[in-house]
Amino acid sequence: MDILYPITPVHYLVLSMFLFVMGLMGVLLRRNLLIIFMSIELMLSGANLAFITFAEAKNNMEGHVFVFMIITIAAAEAAVGLAIIIALFRNKDTVNADELNLMKW
Amino acid sequence: MVEAGFFYLFSLITVVSAVLVVTRRSPMISALYLILCFFSLAAIYVLLNAHFIAIIQVLVYAGAIMVLFLFVIMLLNLGDGLKGIGKITVSKVIGLFLALLVLGTSIRYLVEQGIVLPGEAALRAGRKYAEFGTIEHFGDILLKQYLLPFEIASVLLLVAIIGAVFMTKKKLD
């Protein structure tokens, strides 16, 4: 009960690490480009949660600005990345990362 | 006590939906669970007094970005995109091992090393401004101290728009 009850910033950090590692697993284990992309969004969310936790813990709102920037970057990344996936699918007819090995070696 | 209840409720939703995002076969179902994950994360941001970021999370992440994802998934006709999903390869085993290693070492560091953070009461007492997390204070910081990064971010978004339009053109000439 001692570990569970008073919610400290460490609890939020453990949650953010779990989100990050879940995203990492998605990137490493899944071969579907779209799911890899969504896993990257999960990793970004884990980083966001860590920023906001430290902003609250250190009583400093600059962490919120960084999260705002990360969300902006994520929007730009999603637009460009999905455009690349559409262009790839048009040319190769697949979104499987293992089949897109033209530039592998 | 109330905060703890909400924290465990929303972190449970977040964790379960994050696991489902990674494990579901169909990208469509993954995307829907990712939306659920973002909504519950927004609730957790509210618990951390980040009200503006919580709103942005719902509007931009769960709204705009995920709608884009859903449109693209529906646009691509993924008939045979599901093959080769259950195969266990050497790279997958190594990947799983590395991911669990990252999780284990980081949590062990946090719990044992014990990053010293102020407790709840000390935090409330030492609060510099009452308007922590409000749009007013956020805008104050963003548009004074971080004005240049803010403007550069707008240029980045413009570049992303042009790049996306250019790359999805039928014929590149």
Supply database-style keywords.
heterodimer, A: 105 residues, 73% helix, B: 173 residues, mainly alpha
Question: What do these coordinates show?
Answer:
The complex is a heterodimer of chains A (105) and B (173). Chain A is mainly alpha-helical and 105 residues long. Chain A contains three helices and no strands. Chain A has helices at residues 9-29, 33-57, 62-92. The termini of chain A are far apart. Chain B is 75% helix and 0% strand. Chain B has seven helices and no strands. Chain B has helices spanning 2-23, 27-47, 51-75, 90-114, 120-125, 135-144, 147-167. With 173 residues, chain B is mainly α. The model of chain B has no long low-confidence stretch (mean pLDDT 84). At the A-B interface, helix 1, helix 2 and helix 3 of A face helix 1, helix 2, helix 3, helix 4 and helix 6 of B.
Q: Tell me the overall shape of chain B.
A: globular
Q: What is the N-to-C order of secondary-structure elements of chain B (H for helix, E for strand)?
A: HHHHHHH
Shape of chain A: elongated
Name the beta content range of chain A: under 5%
Largest sheet of chain A: none
Number of helices of chain A: 3
In percent terms, what proportion of residues of chain B is strand?
A: under 5%
Question: What topology does this entry show?
Answer:
The complex is a heterodimer of chains A (about 100) and B (about 170).
Chain A (H helix, E strand, L loop, with lengths): L8 H21 L3 H25 L4 H31 L13
Helix pairs in contact in A: 1-2, 2-3
Chain B lengths: L1 H22 L3 H21 L3 H25 L14 H25 L5 H6 L9 H10 L2 H21 L6
